[in-house]
Design a protein that fits this description.
Radius of gyration: 17 Å
CATH architecture: Beta Barrel
Number of strands: 7
Distance between the termini: 10 Å
Order of helices and strands: HEEEEEEE
Helix content: 10-25%
Strand order of the largest sheet: 3-4-5-7-6
CATH topology: OB fold (Dihydrolipoamide Acetyltransferase, E2P)
CATH class: Mainly Beta
Mean pLDDT: 76
Length: 121
């Protein structure tokens, strides 16, 4: 991978992490009944966001996709907010949360195109 692509990938990763951290910090407070702001308890906080990168392929079910990482890792993904089919056979970076169904599928909350092909995998 050339230096420009490596730098762009690191910059993209840092931007995603800062954005996620900002959203996460903002969600760690709650407003009490009298209008004061207080720290949120564990069950009041939003789901934990994870950032993954890899090659997006078609998954095992309808509207399910598989992200293949570099270290023989893979994750089952789905999304209501992104048309993942547009990103098939492309290298992407995604922010994900556990599915509310807790079925092992991860739900995509943010997506960035890293490369128009999966050649670097």
């Amino acid at each position: 991978m050339n230096m420009k692509k490596t730098f762009a990938l690191w910059l993209l990763a840092a931007s995603l992490m800062v954005g996620i951290a900002t959203v996460g910090y903002a969600q760690n407070t709650t407003t009490t009944s009298n209008g004061n702001i207080a720290s949120a308890t564990g069950d009041q906080r939003g789901p934990q966001v994870t950032v993954l990168a890899g090659c997006l392929e078609r998954g095992s079910g309808a509207d399910e996709y598989t992200l293949f990482g570099q270290m023989v890792q893979w994750w089952e993904l789905k999304s209501d907010g992104f048309n993942l089919e547009v990103f098939l056979d492309k290298e992407v970076m995604v922010a994900v949360v556990k599915s509310p169904k807790n079925d092992g599928t991860l739900t995509v909350t943010n997506l960035a195109l890293v490369s128009p092909s999966c050649l670097s995998q």
